[in-house]
Amino acid sequence: MVSLLAGLTILIIGDSHLATPTYLIESLHDDLLKQGAKTVHTIGVCGSTPAEWLAATPGACGGAERVGSARAVVKGQAAATVPVAQLIANEKPDLVIAVFGDTMAGYTRPDFPKTWAWQQTTSLVKAIAGTKTKCAWVGPPWGSEGGKYGKTYPRVQLISKFLEANVSPCRYIDSTKLSKPGQWATVDGQHFTPTGYQQWGNAIAQALAKP
């Protein structure tokens, strides 16, 4: 059976889950190439939120970039977002994948910042949809409760449902349906071990390859 990803030019943008060589910039990127994608370009900027991809914005904690089968290039303090409209105009991708959720969830805040999150989400979706490029949005995975970022499963569930309702016309990939809570090992509650990222990347690629 031929994968839906065969022959596609794919652009992936997102937060810290793409910003280190052993993260999704390795696992998901490689899996998409294995599925037959023509080329994959991944840019991760640590701490970035969706609306920060509408204009060039310096990263808060580093980043990385990878093109095709080359190794990821770590950007460090030079990391910055690139306006998504500019990326799409230059590269003409068949599919844009946005990986966001954890930077929007406000895990340490008593209330979910719904209005702000709505503005963040819809502004990026509108920018991508305005180019008539197909898109997919990968929501946050369970991770582990607690840790440095104060992640909680109820808040993960809340942000995931929120994104599902607000990313159309992008296709939503619900990461909470790809594993059980705590199934994939993390190093700090939010970021996975290399094995955890391998499992998440594989699951995302399989989900994207299905109609």
TrEMBL record:
Organism: Pigmentiphaga humi
InterPro entries: SGNH_hydro_sf
Record-linked CDD domains: SGNH_hydrolase
Domain of life from the UniProt record: Bacteria
GO molecular function ontology, one term from the record: hydrolase activity, acting on ester bonds
Name recorded for this polypeptide: SGNH hydrolase-type esterase domain-containing protein
Gene3D superfamilies tied to this protein: SGNH hydrolase (3.40.50.1110)
